[in-house]
Design brief:
By secondary structure, the protein is of the alpha/beta class. It has two domains: about 200 residues, Spore Coat Polysaccharide Biosynthesis Protein SpsA, Chain A; about 90 residues, no CATH class. It is built from twelve helices and nine strands. Strands 1, 2, 3, 4, 5, 6, 7, 8 and 9 form a nine-stranded mixed β-sheet that branches. Strand 6 and strand 7 form a beta hairpin. Helix 10 runs antiparallel to helix 11. It is globular, with a radius of gyration of 20 Å.
Length: about 325
């Protein structure tokens, strides 16, 4: 069989109310050279029953059931099964505009080097659609192109619009970081955009569903900070091995996020945790005050470095 242009990997864990819309949004594309790979990640609801009904009527849809291993593991399992030239990872509760792959294919055919692409994203919450990205940061370029003046990294961080050439992932042995339950897709984006310019395709639209109870939108807890800190260590190690010239930009982004960790702890009432993080990551906080972010952030960071409980309570 000839290689399909696109492989869509859809991990599915207990998404029975949403999975049919996700899969059908791929089946009903105006561009048809697409294979669909759904990974049922040990669902305990009727997700699998819905998928079997779809599979029986759609030859391009392949269903694999595995023991629950988490979202990164399911994505990596699907990536291994993918035959397409390009791969997209669509979560089981998100969906695509019917013109998504037609727009992507047209762009690829008109440009020589397109290892990494992303489309426009909108959020979907209770039937209400909103723009998802700050459009000033929707542009082509390496990772530096997405830096805000605050030192925040504003990349296309929603998986539903991120398209990458499979050979590119294989060349650099890139997979999703397993064992992490928060921001694991962000690590993939940072690694890709350090190595290749991302191309923005305005006409390709994905819909990111915001729903209560999802991993990303669960209530804040300081333990999330530890996951993200591990992500930055992973990305820094990757940069050292593959693109050391971009290590400094990753470190600047790390410093900003460490600062935000401590601020978020304080805002959510975790004063003890904030004090502990400020001590643990004081080198990152000091570096942030020198990185050239927004003045108000750097001044607040200097207050964090005092590690005084009464100061933190004033900042709450």
């Amino acid at each position: 069989m000839p290689m399909p242009k696109f492989s869509v990997v859809i991990p599915a864990y207990n998404v029975a109310p949403y999975i049919e819309k996700a899969v059908r949004s791929v089946m009903e594309q105006t561009f048809n050279d697409v294979e669909i790979i759904v990974i049922n990640d040990g669902s305990t609801d009727n997700t699998l029953d819905i998928l079997k009904k779809i599979e029986s009527n759609e030859k391009k849809c392949m269903i694999f059931t595995i023991k629950n291993g988490g979202l990164p593991h399911a994505r990596n399992y699907g990536l291994d099964k993918a035959n397409g030239e390009y791969v997209i990872f669509l979560d089981g509760d998100d969906f695509l505009d019917s013109n998504f792959f037609a727009a992507m294919s047209e762009y690829i055919n008109c440009h020589e080097t397109t290892d990494v692409l992303f489309g426009d994203a909108k959020t979907w919450q209770d039937g209400v659609i909103r723009d998802g990205f700050d459009r000033k940061f929707q542009k082509d370029g390496y990772i530096e192109s997405y830096m805000h003046k605050s030192n925040e990294l504003r990349t296309p961080i929603w998986t539903c619009v991120f398209v990458v050439k499979k050979a590119f992932l294989e060349k650099y042995n890139l997979t999703f970081y397993e064992g992490i339950h928060f921001w694991e897709d962000f690590a993939m984006y940072m690694c890709c955009l350090m190595l290749s310019p991302g191309h923005f395709v305005d006409e390709a639209i994905g819909y990111y569903r915001i729903r209560t109870g999802s991993i990303t939108h669960s209530s804040y807890h300081p333990s999330k900070n530890d996951h993200v800190a591990r992500i930055f260590s992973y990305v820094e190690d990757f940069a050292k091995q593959n693109c050391p010239e971009r290590l400094s930009i990753i470190q600047i982004v790390r410093h900003y996020n460490i600062y935000k960790f401590v601020v978020n702890c304080i805002k959510c009432g975790y004063i003890d945790e904030a004090l502990n993080y400020a001590e643990q990551w004081q080198d990152d906080l000091r570096a942030f005050t020198q990185d050239g972010g927004l003045i108000r952030d750097r001044l607040r960071c200097r207050l964090l470095l005092t590690r005084k409980r009464w100061v933190y309570k004033l900042l709450a």
